[in-house]
Amino acid sequence: MTTGQHSALLVMDIQRDVIALAGDGSGYLPRLRTAIDAARTAGIPVIYVVMGLRPDLPDTAPRTRMLAYVEQAGLFTEGAHGSQIHPDVAPLPGESVVTKRRGSAFSGSDMELVLRTHDVDHLILTGIATSGVVLHTACRANDMDLPLTILSDACMDLDPDVHRTLVEKLFPQWAEVTTAEAWAESIAE
Fold first, then answer.
1. Which class is 7-188 in CATH?
2. What pTM value is reported for the model?
3. Alpha helix (H) ranges present in the chain?
C-alpha cells in the first residue's frame, strides 16, 4: 500500500440527500467510517468534499444534462438540510470541507490549495457516486500526477454494474484499488 504522511483521505459527496437516494442497506456508511477512523488514528488528514450550488443557481447551465437533473431534483443547494454531510461520518473540528461546483473535487473549489497546505502528494478516494465524483476526481488527479488509492467498497454508485466496471477494470489501470478494511489494516501496521 502506498501510504504515509503525505496522503489524504477524500470523503466525497456523502451528503444527506445523496445517502437518501443511494440508500444504505449495503452497510456503506459503516465501511466508510472504518476508513475515516483508520485515517484519523494514523494521522492521515481527512478532507471532506461536498457539492454545493448557490441557491439562485448561477452554477448550473441548462445545456449540461447532469446539472439540469440536479437542479430539477433540488439537490446540492448550499445551506439546505439535504446538502449537509451525513452525520454518521461528519467531520471533526479542524477537518477541511471543500465545496465543489461540478463533478470533480477540483472543479470550482480550493482543493489544490488545501492539498498544498497539508503537503499531500497521494490521494485515497471514497465517495458517491463512483461514476461521478470518484471518476471525475481520479481523472483530474491523474492529470496532476497524483498517485491514487481507491477504496472500492467505500465508493458507491446507483448503478452496481457501472461501479463494478470502474473498480474492476478502469481504476486498476490508474490506481491501487483495495477495500476499506484492507487499507485500514495496512496503515495500522
1. alpha beta
2. 0.91
3. 16-22, 28-42, 65-73, 111-117, 135-143, 160-165, 171-174, 180-188
